[in-house]
Amino acid sequence: MKKLNVLLILTLLCLVNCSNDDEKNSESNDVSGTIQLSGEDTATIGTTLTVGNINLDGLATTGTTKSVTLSDENTSIIGGEVESTNFSNAFIIVASEFTFEDNTSAQKVISMTIVSNSTEFRYGCLTPSNSSGFIDCGVGLKVDKEKKEVIFQDTTVENTETGAILTMNGTVTWN
């Protein structure tokens, strides 16, 4: 239960506070990329996530400039609010990579919500894994704003309710 509460708080902070006082915060930025999923939940949520929007300003909510919020083409963050034209099928991924200057023991974090046929699935990971109970994300998560890409290479996240593991593979790029 503690693990679920931490993930919910992180997700809510990112969804509510991903604002820098601009009217529109999610940017298409010619974003492209598909994330392949494998694991037992794919029978329900599918095997791919196609990224259509990105929010590059995560410092206020995650504590690092190396954070991005990825979402499907129908979901964006406008004025700090999640806006979607299809709440029945959507996703939001907050991916963060911390450095020594961020003053935290965490190196990598993913908080992800997938909505499939109106059913919500929440996932998370934390590197290094600690007593919070989150699974380790693995070494294949890279958030590189200079290269304008996020890489998921055998990145693992855990369903916060069932413990089912998803493996993520793919590259997301933007201009």
Automatic annotation (TrEMBL):
The keyword Signal applies. It comes from the Bacteria. Keywords: Signal. Residues 1-21 form the signal peptide. This is Lipoprotein.
